[in-house]
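Example record

The entry below shows one chain as it appears in the dataset: sequence first, then structure tokens.
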Amino acid sequence: MTRLAAVVLMFTFIVLCLSGCDKPNQEDLESYKKNDVLKLVCQTICANTTTGLGGIFIDNDSVACAEMAQRFTHASRFFEEGEGYVFIETRSGYNISHPANPELQGNSTTGIIDADGKYIVQDMIDLVNYTGFGFLEYRYNNPASDEVEYKTTFVDAIENSTWYAGCGFYHVDYGNLYTQRMMNEEVVKNAVISMAGGVRALLDNYAQDSLQGVDLMRGFLQHIRFFDNQSGYFYVIDYNGYNVVQPPDPSIQGTYEWDIVDSRGNYLVRGLVETAQDGGGFYSYYWEDYQSGEEKMKTAYVMPVEGYDYLIGSGVYSN
């Protein structure tokens, strides 16, 4: 074999190999650090809280609204050990709800400073008044380690109110890298855990019967959207297979879905109910993307609403 023929043969072999390889998914080429994940989780849960509360607040800034905010936020903890929480403040500098430090509730917080002498609550108020939402970074004592650490907090104004909500995390310098999909799944997981606890508190305190409970859940959840493309939302299904809350398509609320299967023969609602009744977790299936109209694999995370025959869930499409 001549040298030219050998080169041509090798080139042909390489082309055939490359053409037979699957093109890597863009989301698998991107990587994110633990702090990126924590930041998106806190932003999402804070925004979900402000949207939900704003949707059901009737008497703006009333004592009744303060009690509702306290009950919801105290029950909607998240992260592995429940260290994640949302606090509520007035723009005049008084705390409405603080799950980690209830002694602050009803008191002025404008005098709180960080390790560098910055008036962080006043900075939060200025940020909300100027842009409506945003991130604030400062150094503060972490109760878990009893050391001064960097902390990032997201704040967001509550509609129909002069209040705002905040949610933050202490920075970490460890942990594996996350792909985009892994990060989105972490967001969905913590968002569902948080919302399951908060919804339970609302039902416990404000629903006198099941019909009132359904109206309450629909009012709270219907306008919540998250992720940059607004594809994130919460749905509620009862354990008999009826759709209770479905924000992207309210026309199917109340319909019986127990026997629905995806294109691969997987039972959709049955799988979600079984997962919730086992304590909650991830469940994957194939379904049409409401935005693109294309069928994609969707990974859902569901949790039981404790004390009720409901599950609450959310999901993320594969790409």
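Notes for this example: Residues 261 and 267 are 4 Å apart (CA to CA). The radius of gyration is 23 Å.
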